[in-house]
Amino acid sequence: MSESSRAGIASDVWTIRRLLTWATEDFQRRGIESPRLEAELLLGHALGMKRIDLILQFGIVLSAGELDRIRELLRRRRSSEPSAYLLGQREFYGIPIRVDRRVLIPRPDTETLVQVAIERSRPRSAHGRALDLCTGSGCVAIALAKHRTGWSMLGTDISDEALQVAEDNALRVGNIWGLGWLRSDLFAEIPTQRFDLITANPPYIPTDELSTLDATIRNFEPQLALDGGPDGLHIIRRIVHEAPEWLEPDGIVAIEIAFNQAAAVTGLLNARGFVDVACNKDYGGRDRVVSARWAKSG
């Protein structure tokens, strides 16, 4: 925010309506998607108000302290910091998930992973064991645990910081039985056991493409959770190769992928001996989750 803008906001009379209009127009000029929604969410967060309350109280004059809080949020959003980090949470599969720069922001596309996992585990819906690799914020593991209440669920990540966020999210959601967390480089530290379902949202962006990502991702989200190696498939190859040693007969593996990786990942699964390989599209109609069944014993 320019010095003149800061001075104007500080010294003039600003109502909720006026500030919403100003912020919306500013976000629009900067190419921020859904500028009005972004402005409402940030102002509501700063003021502790729901979006409907902002509309009902358009005429309220904002105090100097309120303007300071709003100014700081607008400054950070204008520097490309994702709104989810500013708000401190993102809804995922109907669940409010706390997020910060230690973890990736849950995307609607990843809800496809949950949907596929629920559908393909339906034959064993009453009881089972599930493993969520690269769990990050824990959003997938928590969503699955809430829909598979008779299952035991283990979420793992190589990042201690990510696991702290996941544990905090589980505590905040509450009333989740059988959900645990473990620091592990994929399967390396997992106690000897087999699972009926393995899910993963691994890093899958090719290393050379990281610099081309949108600034909201490139400059703020953890690179460890993004970098999939030279072709984006380094971690996925490891999962496909090692998963059979951890799956029960007829166990399911479901992996989130980039939109252009379906053929490659399908080929990896087929070559490893998986059967019933399938690809599901996300809400935007792009290939997003490849899943398969392990029909052998070990």
What does this entry look like structurally?
With 298 residues, the protein is α/β, with parallel strands linked by helices. It has two domains: 3-79, Helicase, Ruva Protein, domain 3 (Orthogonal Bundle), CATH 1.10.8.10; 101-294, Vaccinia Virus protein VP39 (Rossmann fold). Helix content is 40%, strand content 19%. It contains twelve helices and nine strands. The chain has helices at 3-11, 16-29, 35-47, 51-56, 64-78, 83-87, 111-120, 139-147, 160-173, 215-218, 234-242, 262-272; strands at residues 89-92, 95-98, 128-133, 151-157, 179-183, 195-200, 247-256, 275-281, 287-294. A seven-stranded mixed sheet has the order 5-4-3-6-7-9-8, sandwiched between helices. Strands 1-2 form a two-stranded antiparallel sheet. Helix 2 (16-29) crosses helix 3. It starts with a helix and ends with a strand.
